[in-house]
């Protein structure tokens, strides 16, 4: 990453803020259902809501963004595992929250599989761009297949990384709900978007 703010930094920060929105939605749901108090939920939320130009450490843009990613990933995992430790049945409700959040986050319905893939790539927080996590192996108008080159999320979930991927699948279901496309796991960290 460069020493000045460029489009990639704003793109990544937007993805971080979207994940913060998911944390907020889960926290709001937890308070509404009496699982946590509003004060308890604050421990999982970030106070950093400024625009990137105001918030970033300009002398260490890459490190600052990396720190925001790790912080957000850790708080999401902590919130979900805390909520489900008290009652594992809550996880199904949290998946519905993620799906609803995904539906609300869509501003333009994808008409092609590449557009659907780009919607996911513009939404899902998968580390830094230099991590190159989402590697497309096949792309047509109707289908995109990609592999995730590494798992950047599992380390935050204390052995329950599958919870992250189930929650993410629910989010993706919401993101794609207005389109004709669906996500399918092909195993071995390979995924397909197709009609």
Q: What is the count of helical runs?
A: 7
Mean pLDDT: 94
Based on secondary structure, the structural category is alpha+beta
Q: Give me the side-by-side strand order of the main sheet.
A: 1-2-4-3
Low-pLDDT sequence parts = none
What characterizes the major β-sheet?
Answer: 4 strands, antiparallel
Number of strands: 4
Secondary-structure element order, as H and E? HHHHHHEEHEE
The CATH class assignment is Alpha Beta
**CATH A-level architecture:** 2-Layer Sandwich
Gross morphology is globular
Would you give an account of this structure?
This protein is α+β, with helices and mostly antiparallel strands. The protein has a single domain (about 5-195), classed as 2-Layer Sandwich (Muramoyl-pentapeptide Carboxypeptidase, domain 2). Helix content is about 55%, strand content about 10%. It contains 7 helices and 4 strands, in the order ααααααββαββ. It has helices at about 5-30, 40, 50-55, 60-85, 90-105, 115-125, 160-175, and strands at about 135-140, 145-150, 180-185, 190-195. The chain has a 4-stranded antiparallel sheet, covered by helices on one side. Helix 1 crosses helix 5 (about 90-105). The longest helix is centred in the N-terminal third of the chain and has 26 residues, at about 5-30. The N and C termini lie far apart (about 35 Å). The mean pLDDT is about 95.
């Amino acid at each position: 990453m460069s020493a000045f703010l460029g489009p990639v930094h704003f793109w990544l920060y937007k993805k971080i803020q979207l994940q913060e929105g998911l944390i907020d939605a889960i926290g709001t749901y937890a308070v509404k259902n009496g699982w946590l108090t509003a004060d308890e939920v604050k421990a999982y939320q970030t106070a950093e809501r400024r625009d990137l130009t105001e918030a970033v450490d300009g002398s260490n843009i890459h490190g600052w963004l990396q720190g925001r990613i790790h912080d957000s990933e850790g708080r999401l995992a902590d919130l979900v595992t805390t909520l489900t430790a008290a009652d594992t049945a809550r996880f199904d409700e949290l998946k519905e929250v993620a799906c609803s959040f995904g539906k609300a986050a869509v501003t333009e319905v994808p008409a092609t599989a590449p557009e659907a893939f780009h919607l996911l790539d513009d939404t899902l927080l998968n580390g830094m761009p230099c991590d190159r996590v989402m590697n497309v192996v096949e792309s047509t108008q109707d289908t995109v297949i990609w592999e995730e080159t590494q798992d950047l999320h599992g380390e935050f979930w204390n052995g329950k990384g599958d919870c992250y991927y189930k929650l993410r699948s629910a989010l993706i279901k919401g993101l794609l709900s207005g389109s004709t496309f669906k996500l399918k796991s092909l195993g071995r960290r390979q995924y397909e978007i197709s009609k």
